[in-house]
Amino acid sequence: MSDARESLTRRHFLRTSLHGIGGVALASMFARESFALGAGSPPLVLPHFPARAKRIICLWQGGGPSHVDLLDPKPELARFQGKDIPESVRGATRLSTMSSSYARWPALPAIRPFRKCGASGTEISELLPHIGGIADELCVVRSMHTEAVNHSPGVTFFMTGSQQPGRPAMGAWLAYGLGNECDDLPSFVVMTSSDREKSCGQLFYEHYWSNGFLPGRHQGVRFRSEGDPVPYLGNPDGVSRDGRRALLDDLAALNREREAVAGADTPAIETRIAQYEMAFRMQASVPDLLDFSNEPKSVLEMYGPDALVKGSFANNCLIARRLSERGVRFVQLMHSGWDQHSNLFHHLEKQCRDTDQPSAALVRDLKQRGLLDETLVIWGGEFGRTPFGQGPSDAPNGRDHFGRAYSMWMAGGGVRGGHVHGATDDFGWNIARDPVHVHDMQATILRLCGIDHERMTFRHQGRQFRLTDVHGSVVSDLIG
Amino acid sequence: MLALCAVASVAWRVSQGGEPPGPPPRFSTDILPVLSENCFQCHGVDAAQRRGNLRLDLRESAVARGAIVPGVPSAGSLVARIHATDPDTRMPPDESHRSLTDAQRAMIVRWIAAGAVYEPHWAFVAPKAAAIAAAAADEHPIDAIVSARLAREGLVLSPEADRAILIRRVTFDLTGLPPAPEEVAAFVGDPSPEAYERVVDRLLASPHYGEKQALPWLDAARYADSNGFQQDGDTFQWLWRDWLVGELNRDTPYDALSTWMLAGDLVPDATDETRIGTAFLRNHLLNGEGGAIPEENRWVSMFDRVDATATTWLGLTMSCAQCHDHKYDPITQRDYYALLDCFNRVPESGIVDGSPSRIRVANPVLEYPSDALRARRAELEAAVKAGAENAQGPLDQFLRDEWPRVMVMSDAQPRETHVLSRGAHTNPAAKVSFATPEFLPPMDEASPRDRLGLAQWLFSPENPLVARVAVNRAWQVFFGDGLVRTPEDFGVQGDRPVHQELLDTLAVRLRESGWRMKPLHRLIATSRVYRQTSLASDALRARDPDNRLLARAPRFRMGSMVLRDAALAAGGLLDARVGGAPVYPYQPAKVWESLAITMERNFDYPASRGADLYRRSLYTFWRRTIAPANMFDVSQRQSCRVRVPITNSPLHALTMLNDPTFVEAARTLAQRTMKTESDRAAQRARAFERVVGRAPNAREEAILGAMFERQLAEFSADRAGAERFLSIGESPRDASIDPAEHAALAATCLAILNLDEAVTRE
């Protein structure tokens, strides 16, 4: 785009000039910029359909939550306890190298009972009582499947549609396609947390929120819980907000002097000025976002004892609601600690205790604010866990990665509440009905946002790329 | 069908109506891009996806299947189908989400009427140098070709840029650093016609030339100082980075440099200096996660090598052919695996060595110690030999953590290569042996069937792509964009160069002059085309918004690595030492630590002290899982990238206003001007000049003055704040300077570093 390299068109500039430097024009720094396309990409016409979800909060449960312990009850496993899962069920399943050479496959029943929840009667483990309490909001998918056998490729697959790092994340696609509703926060925000024991050993790679080949401003902005939430957000020590304001005014005046030179690239310089103004506004909006003093006590209580503990899953859930409220398009909240290879019995319960209440609180909180209808909440991980036990075959104490069948849930944003989609066989091993591949889930999520996954493309390396690669079908049964 | 044809032919006549008579459309520039984008998906190279047994990329097939009747548009089904109104018949079909414009339909019709002449894709035919008109024989070849093209458009080159801008531009482009004020003054004051060329020659000889020219190579080589993934172990690949900078400074010919990167272990006179080049093929991600399937990882590495090689040297998107025949370019899946075969001989396991060290490398490696390290090792070994107490531990630790082992290539473990169905290593199909893509000129019979043969083939005179791709990347150095705007894709779906004649002439010249880059860079930098002003009338901008014609110089924000170096230079902080182990400059607290939630290793950021804080950005430790916090718009170093878009985000502004690097540089810039100038206005002017290369005009000086006064008022009212502001950064401050005054000038300097003009290469 050469002179438009910095992604501002004359049209945009004219609009800026008409409005002066303020309000609407400045907002577009993060906002929808349909002109910011790759060389040769056709202009996007979005949304393709009326959007059900305007925003997404993804409560990522990293490590692989055990479907057979949490969301997919399998009484048959109890009947087979101690016995191997039959080979007729197992077939030629691709497993991680940690268990692919096993000689035994002892069925391991759910560590705690399931309960029928809500009017819908959806069965959910009693390890998740709060999530059980919002069962009628949930669309539980029990027939997810993925090709990935390991964490990083699995997470990358769900987030970007490819197991290899380098493609744009879902949040970047949405920021690119739909822009921002918010004029002083990024459109794609990431937060991370992990279980207290840090048992899991997984990293949160930047490529989980990468812009890939999309313009760099669509990269997820990670809010950190230590130091400045956004790197370099705070003024240098000793610089006051007034001092900075004065400096920026004078800086803009100097930049405008440059515009006075005949033939100067005024649109580019105006873009620069607007970029600095937006930065100044973010310096106020982010601290405001993280100022919980106006949160009613009842709300904080709903999120549980960690609600105000920086860096906790609960605090991140609360921030996620505040971000959504302000119009942030995609909040990717990444929590790890679901990788129970050898500590299933004591650790899974702790993990549930830390995440159950805040997850449910977020859904309730959105609902009571009237935001749930237009905010899609997604809960799930990169795969499930083996229905057989890992560890000593006579006393298994964990479960290995399992991508052949697993469960997720969604709420709000136009999904069908109180609904269970798909089913696995008696062992939770094979999908018995209505499989949902990761690409299908992605296509469905985009559809809820009003986007045809086949038509939101970006040209890179000579072809049109999309989130779902060349796969994926919308699962209309998930849509309410 | 009859009725359909009638409708179609009416539509065709309609679409022809009012068509201005002109030369018939050309296949390679006008027709092929349209067919490729809209039809090849189902009627192209990929046999598996082909519908109706029709190929539109081959004239023979299109005519035999009745799609095209040359000379008689209405007789063929192609014209009928693209004009059909019935969605069941219309091409391209609705579900493809593709459609033709009326103008495209009309063009196809005119092309068929003129005989439907096919010709090969432009980039797949070897380049020829332009015959430059006799009248222009004395002219600079770049200027002659561009001027001739502009004349056809009724345009001329823009005047030369101001000298101050010109020297700033060329110094940044060649060395990535700003010119010193004395260098600017000398050039501006030198009336001799050779003054500019002397500047260019001086810069080409600078050791910083290689550092700057290495930057795009690092992106192509997905270079990082750690392996990525969970363990993210550190590596010694930085020795390859130093090797690269050295070779670029020596102007090692591009063919030799490339041959060493691809096959430095296989050349007849191989030495460690050539072997280390092959680290290019080993700079990829390495997964050491528990449970990862080693053979799967090994294949991922090989896919990466094919991708990096094809993108870097051929400008081809071969990775599409990993799972199926390429949809657009004539690259088959068989071609892909036949090429991959030369990378499938490495004695590697697909996993990273699981030592408990911070360092994690995977065989094969090249031990590449300096003399000092050799001496140290001898010392430690001598101690062990002499039976000294507790001597073995230090030696072991030395060998593990400090003894440099660069991951390189080796062909010591040949394997059978098979085409993989859908790219899955668990689904091997037909066996293949090494070969270069069939649609390109064949390999020399005498060439070995390995990576060395591949390199020889790339640099054979018949290869249509390699020289063009190299010239295009050189052009990017000076113009931001290449002559082909898709440097990663010279294929059918890629950008068509407006100045193909120029690209081809330079490509031939590069090859014929022994593949030396410095002469090519000199040729570009001394052209009038390069020396034009970037100022442009609204009319010119409107006429050519993307500057495809090159009737003006481009103007773009510089990369974040260069901006950091420029600030360090302006502040007099820059440590100009070339090469060495990566360093750890300022980074916000807990950036690394909060990412790491593994207990497997310590991820504390080992912050540098002293001079290492001020090394050039290319020496900053690049952790694969988290890029340096103050570098924006950079390749993520996960896969090969030859183009990194420049974007705008408020986060960039926050970095340049608040990162201690910039705050400290502003403070030292203020201090150094206060040392040389006593007058406040002169101090501001000197600082301004140091950053943008020119003195402020009267109006600018007035604003700078007001800025300083306002900041002075702020800091005078808060002297403690001034002290805190001035204490940012490790370098000492001259405490004899009044803090409020120093802080006010430092704030002013910070604003100057953030000027649009300062961050822009004009």
Describe what this molecule looks like in 3D.
The complex is a heterodimer of chains A (480) and B (762). Chain A has helices spanning 10-19, 23-27, 67-70, 75-79, 87-90, 129-133, 151-160, 170-178, 241-259, 266-289, 297-303, 313-325, 344-368, 438-448; strands at residues 55-62, 114-117, 122-125, 138-145, 188-194, 221-222, 330-336, 375-380, 384-385, 401-402, 406-411, 419-421, 423-424, 431-433, 436-437, 458-460, 463-465. Chain A is an alpha/beta fold. In chain A, the strands form five sheets. In chain A, strands 1, 4, 5, 6, 7, 8, 11, 12 and 15 form a nine-stranded mixed β-sheet that branches. In chain A, strands 2-3 form a two-stranded antiparallel ribbon. In chain A, a hairpin with a 2-residue loop joins strand 16 (458-460) and strand 17. In chain A, helix 9 (241-259) runs antiparallel to helix 10 (266-289) and helix 12 (313-325) runs parallel beside helix 13 (344-368). The longest helix of chain A is centred in the last third of the chain and has 25 residues, at 344-368. The model of chain A is unreliable at 1-43 (pLDDT under 50). Chain B has 762 residues and is mostly helical. Helices cover 46% and strands 2% of the residues of chain B. Chain B is built from 33 helices and six strands. In chain B, the strands form three sheets. Chain B has a two-stranded antiparallel sheet. In chain B, strand 3 (417-420) and strand 4 (428-432) form a beta hairpin. At the A-B interface, helix 9 and helix 10 of A face helix 15, strand 5, helix 26, helix 27 and helix 30 of B.
Using a beta-carbon cutoff below 8 angstroms, give the protein chain pair with the largest interface and the number of residues from each chain: A-B, 97 and 116 residues
In helices, the fraction of residues of chain B equals 40-55%
Counted by DSSP, the helix tally of chain B is 33
Gap from first CA to last CA of chain B: 61 Å
- Proportion of helical residues of chain A: 25-40%
By secondary-structure content and strand pairing, the structural class of chain A works out as: alpha/beta
Cα gyration radius of chain B (Å): 30 Å
Whole-angstrom Rg of chain A = 24 Å
- Please give the order of strands in the largest beta sheet of chain B: 1-2
Q: Could you report the average pLDDT of chain A, rounded to the nearest whole number?
A: 87
| Amount of beta strand of chain B | under 5%
Shape of chain B: globular
Based on Cα principal axes, name the global outline of chain A: globular
Count of helical segments of chain A? 14
Extended strand count of chain B: 6
Largest sheet of chain B: 2 strands, antiparallel
Oligomer: heterodimer
Percent of residues in beta strands of chain A = 15-25%
Largest sheet of chain A: 9 strands, mixed
Which structural category do the helix and sheet elements of chain B fall into?
mainly alpha
Query: How many individual β-strands of chain A?
Result: 17
